[in-house]
Amino acid sequence: MSHRRAKGQTNSNHRPAKELCSECGLCDTYYIHYVKEACAFLHQQFDHLETTTHGRKRDLDNDRELYFGVHQQMWSARKIEPIPGAQWTGIVTTIATEMLTQGLVEGVVCVQADETDRFKPKPILATTAEEILAARVNKPTLSPNLSVLELVERSGMKKLLVIGVGCQIQALRAVEQHLGLEKLYVLGTPCVDNVTRSGLQKFLDTTSRTPQTVVSYEFMQDFNVHFKHENGSIEKVPFFALNTEKLKDVFAPSCMTCFDYVNSLADLVVGYMGAPYGWQWIVVRNDRGQEMLDLAKSALELEPVQSLGNRKPAVQQSISAYDQAVTLPLWMGWLLGFIINKIGPKGLEYGRFSIDSHFIRNFLYVRRHYAHKLATHVPEFARRIVEQYQLPKD
To answer: Number of structural domains, the chain?
Structure first.
């Protein structure tokens, strides 16, 4: 049965999730027929999709799986010879390139930057190593990665690698059986606090000293936002000195209602949240993920993950500060960040700190703005995490 749209028909204005749409791109294709089941913001189905993807759902009584999802192994890693211009050392780019050049896949869904705007994402179906290399560096805005799925079918490809974030991958897994592929590999990145292009500009203008020269940025393990500028310099701004009042509404509603920070349905996840500063965190979720990592292993320095410190006091204190939109003076933000960086959580415990903080914020957001969805939208693992803390009464 063909899913093709009539010539000239468009779904660009049809978003069943409405204001909660994360613009994953599914609704820009004829796979919109499946959106009510596939969209993470219309239908949460972690248990089912984890089972179909990994062979089982996560063990909620295992603390690591409660937080980080189904997995076989975790590593801290960095490339021995970093790729010039990569956001970190180029692990994602290396794995994707090896997958393509060694013939495990025929194409890679990834995101380049628009020619007119470095922060505007341009999803592509890459078929050369050069196209993959051109997609290095994160684009911290909502991106319609799945919009290229129609290209995959038209190309006749049967072996595909998709690089994406949690909301995109949940939708992808829900329609996977309809794609006609013989093999699908998914390389995921953790994702939180994404923005529209206008929201990104507000964040840059509010936070960076020279927003026009920012190339990339990341919320890092040292409790600072790191802005990389065109001249290669790094500007650091402490988490605790961000202008919360101005930035409280800058993040997309989809991100404020998301509970898949760790990209639990990917085969392999590469990020930074569970690794020491300067390293990347790698999560192998299944055998396909291990196959992907094995391709790049000889180019990587690998270390076991560690978990140090106690996140809970910092998390509990941050709840009221965020809720009341408290903004500290810059000097106090530096001081607080310095102290917490010295004695606070590191490694996986930092990852838990970040998950706790964002899940609490998002739980409160859903409770206040979408109370009718609270029972069905918040997954059980997120509830268990949130229940460890005292929350404000509305």
So the answer is: 1
